[in-house]
Predict the structure of SAM-dependent MTase RsmB/NOP-type domain-containing protein.
Amino acid sequence: MASRDAAERAAFFARREAAAVLRRVLRGDAARRAVGSIKSLVYSPTVRNKRATFALVCQTLKYLSIIKEVLASSGVLNGKWKKQEELVYVTAYDILFGQGTAVSGSAEQLIMLHKDTLKTALEKICARKKVGCVEDLLSKKTAGKPKPRFLRVNTLKTTTESVMEDLNKIHMVDRDDMVPDMLVLPPGTDLHSHPLVTDGKVFLQGKASCMVAGALCPKPGWKVIDACAAPGNKTVHLAALMNGEGSIIACELNKERAKTLQQTIRRSGANNIQTVNGDFLDIDSNNPSYAEVRAILLDPSCSGSGISTERLDYLLPSHSVDDQDDASTSSRVMKLSAFQKKALSHALSFPSVERVVYSTCSIHQAENEDVVNAVLPLATSLGFELTTPFPQWHRRGLPVFEGSEHLLRTDPEDGLEGFFIALFVRKAAASGVEEPGEDKSLGVRGKPVRKRRNGLGAFSSLRLSRIILCSTGRF
């Protein structure tokens, strides 16, 4: 009896956590401005029962169109409950299609009170659509081919050898043959609750994502800007490549995502990062405070078309609508492309910057090659040239302009997410510099982390209402 009560209580709280995540997912999807993927929202520190919450969110989304139709035909979701509709959706899924465990709770009581009515409505829908079971009503959305589980060792806290020794006790672990401090595990390996992950010694980060900071290859002691930093995995990767030396200014405009960025930094143990809750475009590149910036990582807002499977976007209500349109030329992608060109031009304008990486998790030419090609004349006039990161990588840019062979693409066919990377290097700084992939020792390991503070300086528009400086050096 005690174990049953505990299970019912766990289900009760998991539904509330799932409803909170579902609310953010659905609102972001409706506005086409998601604050995070389903996975990132579920696996945030604020969610306690991650496994149950993740299952409930995914399954509720899978059955959502059916649940909505059943609730509408039965009249259950009226005025009062419209304000808590996500909780009703989750509870309806769990009781009608899931484990069916219900305890005292207003939403549970609502669904249990109308359970027979809802089941009758469901039977009528099946009969009207001439299907034999509920599963036949589900859309045939696919999760795609499983990919290996990649993880990056956080060398600010531990060593690759130590992590391999620990994980090899229970998992089959291999080193990646190209990206330093990257390990490869079998598909489906779940490490979200592993102490190495929760302690920040390991980050569950895809190989393509790790290639971005690796391409920038900042040196210890440099001053670096991460222009669109949240959720922060690339930011803390930069800190590790720099051995915790020098300084990183991490910009993030969205207030909620800025909080996620700070959580990531705290977990990593990096103490040379300062976060800016503000717009990278507001930074005055000619301000003396930024005269020593030598590298900029620009991973701006994009369509996310290269990681839609990893984000579980195929579960979202908008997915079927997007499939009917030519997403690569949609008005949203064109607006993103215009912003990306503006941001890249701004990154290249910093007077002392030597290396700029432009990256997206998009597969669309409009956000990738077209952006680089449009900005290339400006880059050339400022003394920059395209350089080849990870030259041993086989997949390069689409051949749409001269020099596109320097660009880098990854693709699901490679067992990776769909990413794009362009590396601009100022000619005066290019001589004698070893590009990523030529030498696997990106920086010297094992030096103690050293705390340094650097002033963030002025912003061109001085929009102080939008810009909050949040020093994370004390963590």
